[in-house]
From TrEMBL:
Family matches, as Gene3D superfamilies: 3.30.530.20
Record lineage: Bacteria, Bacillati, Actinomycetota, Acidimicrobiia, Acidimicrobiales
Pfam families registered for this protein in UniProt: Polyketide_cyc2
Domain of life: Bacteria
Name of this chain's protein: SRPBCC family protein
Length: 158
């Protein structure tokens, strides 16, 4: 079965450095993602949250371990799932671009489904999680109301 990709985009009324730092600094996740815990298990090679860093995200029974695979502040980072979620070969990238009056946050995750049911269910769950992260960051930095009006754009590619 082919790789399934979900991409979520959201305008955030804050500079890219602010948005990127909230995502890259795993200790900040508990501030903007209410009820979500995150901690660094291992530091990265050139930066504590950079390439090679391993972070734990979530709360049992839905918790994961992720390794940072690319780190280019304040523009982008990528990570891969090590353990914890039922998604085979899950990888994601986060890009923050400067736009007028703020940032465009693009969060894309992909996985290889093991069957058709996982393909649909995994994509739905991933879309909900990534969308929730984007809305939570927007609310945290700009008092955004989180409405799904003109600022959330999603796409799923098989």
């Amino acid at each position: 079965m082919s790789r399934r990709t979900v991409t979520v985009r959201r305008f955030i009324a804050a500079p890219p450095e602010v948005v990127f730092d909230l995502i890259a600094d795993n200790s900040a996740w508990g501030r903007w993602a209410i009820g979500l815990e995150s901690e660094r298990e291992a530091e990265g090679h050139d930066h504590p949250d950079g390439v090679g860093a391993i972070r734990k995200v979530g709360r049992a029974p839905v918790a994961s371990r992720e390794e940072i695979t690319a780190f280019d502040p304040p523009r982008s980072l990528s990570y891969k799932l090590l353990t914890g979620l039922p998604l085979q070969d899950y990888e994601a990238s986060v890009m923050v671009e400067q736009v007028t009056d703020g940032s465009l946050l693009t969060w894309a995750g992909s996985f290889v489904p093991v069957n058709g049911v996982q393909s649909a269910g995994g994509a739905t769950a991933l879309r909900a999680a990534l969308g929730s992260f984007c809305v939570s960051i927007a609310r945290y930095v700009s008092r955004d109301d989180g409405d799904d009006d003109l600022s959330v754009h999603e796409g799923t590619v098989d």
